[in-house]
Amino acid sequence: MAYTPCDSSQIGMNAQKNCLFPAYAGLQTLAIMCRWEDVNRIIYYHEHNGEETSESSYSGGGEQETVTMQNKNRIKRILLKGWVNEDEDNEEEDSNSAQGDQLPSEPTHKSEAEGDAADEDEGDGTYAKWIAIEAGGATPYADTAEEYDADSGTFTKTLTFTAPRAGAEFSSEFIEPLLRNKNGWVVILQRKDKKGGDSAFPILGLDNGLIASEASLNYTDGENGGCYSFTLTETYAPNAEMDLWWGNYHDTQNEFNSYLKYTIDDHDSADED
User: Fold this and answer.
1) FRET label pair with 211: which of 126, 144, 188, 237, CA 20 to 30 Å apart?
2) Does the pLDDT value for residue 90 go beyond 80?
3) Which of 162, 156, 160, 163 has its CA nearest to residue 144?
4) Which has the closest alpha carbon to 264: 177, 168, 161?
């Protein structure tokens, strides 16, 4: 195909589009994470006969059922232990309609949806929570990457980040649990580029869990502010990039923000009240 240069109208249109929706490399500072074993259910988002539909799978503490679909790498919702999907009764009806027009009800803790009944999964009425993390350092999540291993046919995913602060309290409440959880973590990141469609909210660790492989603290490191730096690794992941996706950026951002409402800090403060 012969090369055809852009005319002035095309250049102007592209410039206006890029000014309204600029492309940025890298990741935003704010991310969320949960324990891999706390993932109780995954609701997938995929296309079926030209329409966007959802399909559910119970994970059984992280062990996902086999789901056959066109694109199982799109994740519509992650439900943790002790949470229910308020749209459950209408799921079959809603699954045949186009997504993105209206965000369905947010995931709700069982005690809110069913009273104070004890959670069946944990038996004591408690429920799993998300953890909000804000990466420190000059470049948030620098060197976070995925790599394909041809011998095993799987992917190795690596998350690197610097703790946002230091101190004994933060070490006991966040750093030590992070390093000692041998079942791993699930992390949802935010790209700075909002034009990437379903790549705006990448998910790491959903297959096999991100497990801490390195951690170091240099008290005199100015770039990292004298805070801990971590490397978490997921090995033998069968899927390449996985993303949170609701059909458009706005609704996906709303889903991400709904998880932020139920982070550990927020609920601990609420419980004290």
Assistant:
1) 126
2) no
3) 160
4) 177
Cα(163)–Cα(246) distance, integer angstroms: 30
Q: Tell me the C-alpha to C-alpha distance, in Å, between residue 75 and each of 127, 234, 252.
A: 21, 18, 10
Residue 198 and residue 242: Cα distance in Å, rounded?
Answer: 9
CA–CA separation, 91 vs 11, rounded Å?
45
Q: What is the 3-state secondary structure (H, E, C) of the chain?
A: CCCCCCCHHHHHHHHHHHHHCCCCCCECCEEEEEEHHHEEEEEEEEEECCEEEEEEEECCCCCCCCCCCCCCCEEEEEEECCEECCCHHHHHHHHCCCCCCCCCCCCEEHHHHHCCCCCCCCCCCCCCCEEEEECECCCCCCCCEEEEECCCCEEEEEEEEECCCCCHHHHHHHHHHHHHCCCCEEEECCECCCCCHHHCCEEECCCCCEEEEEEEECCCCCCCCCCEEEEEEEEEECCCCEEECCCCHHHHHHHHHHHHCCEHHHHHHHHHC
Rounded Cα–Cα distance for residues 49 and 101 (Å): 18
Residue 237: Cβ-neighbour burial (10 angstroms; 0-12, 13-18, 19+): buried
Higher-confidence residue: 69 or 101? 69
pLDDT classification of 225: cutoffs 50, 70, 90? confident
Residue 137 pLDDT: 80
First to last CA, the chain: 67
